[in-house]
Protein: Exodeoxyribonuclease 7 large subunit
Amino acid sequence: MTSFEATAVAGEAPPADSVPPRDSTVDAPTSIARLNATIRDFVAQWGTVWVEGEITSWNLRAGNVFARLKDTRSDAQISIRIWSSVRARIPADLAVGDHVVAAVKADYFVKAGDFSFTVSAMKHVGLGDQLERLERLRAQLRQEGLFDPARKRPLPFLPHVIGLITGENSDAEKDVHRNAELRWPQVRFRTVHAAVQGDRCVPETLAALKKLDADPDVDVIVIARGGGDPQTLLGFSDERLVRAVAAATTPVVSAIGHENDHPLLDDVADLRASTPTDAAKRVVPDVGEQRALIGQLRARATTRVSQRVSHDIAQLEQLRSRPVLRDPDPLLERRAQEVWLLTARSRDALGRRVETAGRRTSELRASLRALSPAATLARGYAIAHRSDGVIVRDVADAPAGTALTLTVDRGSLRAISEGEVPEGAEAGRGRGRGPECAPVG
Structure:
């Protein structure tokens, strides 16, 4: 049953100008203008209705807003227009993801055949369901420390191979390749294609990340996608993907959407690039800039070395100009005289010490000779000792018949003891001393 038939059943006659052109035939078709006018007039009868939904896109053009609202319980969506005069009366902080109620009136534009709704009022209801869930997840991951800048790894200065995860034949892939090659022509990529929206986005991106992270040649991984509304970017806020990026051993760059797009992947990645083009500029250095830097460093080094050499030459000339170096002979002559005097003094002092030491040595030798047994022997005394080596100190030590050895000043001689000399008998100068030590005469 058509809307027109439903109106008739309700007992209401449709306006004459809204009656569909039923008189059209294949031979006499109606005009598009008449058809559009009929649709416009019929739609105009609906009036203004209040709807509830979530803002999924929000584009500002010449002061007017062109956006889309999504039903919070299904996938149904409508296009809305907010003219600048109305925009001044609604909250200024409305943005994608907001849960709102809006007064809308259906509009059918006859010239273009476009159908949309014009907003006359709009207000917040709260965050959209999806945005609310994402904010709760964002808070949880932040509390776990996954967004902590301290855990983010620095990107290599010049990666050997760049791993790229993006859609096949996408503009993002072309932008990354083109801009990276412009900066460093020898850059190498290892690209793994994955769906960047829809149900396949998360599992395919996870598989690509795992493959590139396990590749030892890959030094950095870029996940790139062009812009889109929050609905198409939801995969890059999936908790599984976010945790996988946090656990990766290779630095990861997030290049999702445009500057105003902000999936959770941006927060956990080691570097967030505002666009795929920006990612290409961040992962490789500019060869022109590096050459210019090398030139500057060379010029600076040349200047410093030249300054140092010039300074050292000036210092050397200053030293050479000093009198002591220009004519060193007087100084050497003065020093030679000092050396001669010191040598003479040393020689005199050494001679006196040697002379004193000689006299002291002679005195000690004389004292030692006076105390030596040899001096006693030289005076005519002898030392008697038995064959067992015992020195005879008492006549009892050498009874008659004892073989003795007598040591004199020059040599030794053998003797036989005849016993003790009687008291009063002549025994030469050794009388009364027994056989131990007696003068030999």
